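TICKET #2291
ISSUE: user wants both folds in one file
ATTACHMENT 1:
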Amino acid sequence: MTESYVYLDEFRRDIYRMVPADGKVIGSIGCGRAPTEARLVAEGREVHGVDVSAEAIETARTRLTSARVIDPNESPFEDDSLDGLILADVLEHLPMAWEKLISFSRAVRPDGWVVISVPNNRYVEALIPLMFKGDWPESPMGIFDQTHLQVMTHKRLNRWCLAAGLRLDAEFDCYDYRFVRRNIYRGLNLATFRVLKAFLTFEVQARYRRESVARSA
């Protein structure tokens, strides 16, 4: 991503709610300006952020325990050095992201947690232009973000995590940011006992725990 990429500076409650109470030393890959991670620091946690944007990191340094610019090809943290890791809308931007996830997960101690959020490409409003118009638009952000390299679904993320030695700890439903649509889709999801979650949730969000031995996909 280039410096022209839009880095928002808004606290994300949807990410914050996934972070468990345990874990003092936390890493955040793709932290941006780190407004959400700053809340964890204020609560007494130690948060180390990395990002490819020097501009975003300049702000993050004022908010986190440490923050630095990294090369996207490097492993940003030492193995078994973290209690928890935040990957908030990062994996979809990476080539061979499933391999990067294996590397990232090794930074977390066994039974430590990894919080992941990625866009849901099976979301009903993402499928409409594809199925009925035969097109996939390019946008500056959101599901159609032109910098996305990966097509993400619940099943694909869970498969990647299994291969990375991560077991599912909790799933979270994240709905459309627009008030009316958010509540319509939430109601439909609850009414169908979450059977249609793959089509009604805007993002795929889950928390995983690292197992001691990674499995093969």
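ATTACHMENT 2:
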Amino acid sequence: MTTESAPAAKHAPPEDWKPFPRAGHTPFYYVAGTALRLFYSLYGRWKIVGMEHVPKTGGVLLAGNHVSNLDPPMVGGALFGYRRVRFMAKIELWSTPIGHYAMDRIMSFPVRRGTADRPTIRRTLGWLAEGDAIAIFPEGERSEDGTLQPAQPGMALLVQKSGVPVIPVAIVGTYQMWPKGQKRLMRVPLTIAFGEPIHFAPDASRDEITNTIMGRIAALLTENGQPTAAPPLLRART
């Protein structure tokens, strides 16, 4: 495709959003990926742990903790040049022409938080079935105090319906660098750790899936210098 579609209307609903066909294959994608790696290596002095646990092919979910706006680009920067990853992100990031342009090209796709966003769930399951890697943040939004929060129910649903393995991801230091509400970045060392793949039985319950994944994220955080307990379930499920 030689032309690009015009930006969608402000807060376009996910069912009206169409994936940009060249996402992950544009000059913008490569410039952004290179810039992210430079920023996190030079300013964040980051350490990447366990990259070998991320499979290079096949459908997979990457599930990480979320304490800062720096988290999604940190995951993308760490995997840039290793494997292309789609990112589930809040729909508000598409509310401006610049945001819409950038998010589409870095392989992000919108989700309407706090709702049963069925079009996005169907789209995500379709990509996983096609062998894509998708990054999600199970807590749904940034932690206010830097602690690991309970997971939203959507993660377990995706695991149940897709059957793909899950890579737990621990991000350490971004809360100290740029927490929610802070305007200025602080220079602190960062770590991103990828855990071993988690495989679930077809009959695994949502509680089992949620507890296991959040427990693994907590354990990874602890192993990498941030002692963390697994959060409670958001609510009882059957």
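RESOLUTION: both attachments delivered.
EXTRA DETAIL ON ATTACHMENT 2: Residues 23-223 form a domain with the Glycerol-3-phosphate (1)-acyltransferase fold (CATH 3.40.1130.10).
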